[in-house]
From TrEMBL:
Record carries keyword Membrane: yes
Subcellular location: Membrane
Entry keyword set: Membrane, Transmembrane, Transmembrane helix
UniProt protein name: DoxX family protein
Listed transmembrane segments: 6-24, 45-62, 68-92, 99-117
Chief location: membrane
InterPro entries: DoxX
Membrane topology category: Multi-pass membrane protein
Transmembrane among keywords: yes
Length: 118
């Protein structure tokens, strides 16, 4: 179970560090080709989502690695589940049901991380 957590948690952390980092650092124009939803969401909210994703990635790794407050890994994974629920809702509200495959995959992986972290 421990190895499975590190595989799932590590892959999620890499993904969210990348995606969150892009949301934090890039302009709306640079994000638009890969994240079409940023045209209708205020940039402060996009930046906030990016910060939450980066914090979630850190929360998956650091508490388990250091042994300090390991319950934070469960909270981080649960937070990433909520981010994906929000992402699915945004895509569905925009009529982009065909684009939720990645969101569903990330939601399932984050839910697995919650389970494995227990």
């Amino acid at each position: 179970m421990e190895i499975a957590y590190w595989i799932v948690g590590g892959l999620l952390a890499v993904f969210y560090l990348y995606a969150g980092g892009k949301k934090i650092t890039q302009s709306q124009e640079r994000l638009l080709p890969m994240m079409g939803w940023v045209d209708r969401v205020p940039m402060p909210l996009v930046r906030t989502i990016g910060v939450l994703e980066v914090l979630g990635a850190a929360g998956l790794i650091l508490p388990r690695l250091t042994g300090i407050a390991p319950w934070l890994a469960v909270a981080a994974a649960a937070g990433l589940v909520l981010i994906q629920v929000g992402g699915i809702a945004v895509h569905l509200s925009r009529g982009e049901a065909r684009l939720i495959g990645l969101n569903i995959g990330l939601l399932v992986a984050a839910a697995a991380a919650v389970w494995l972290a227990f």
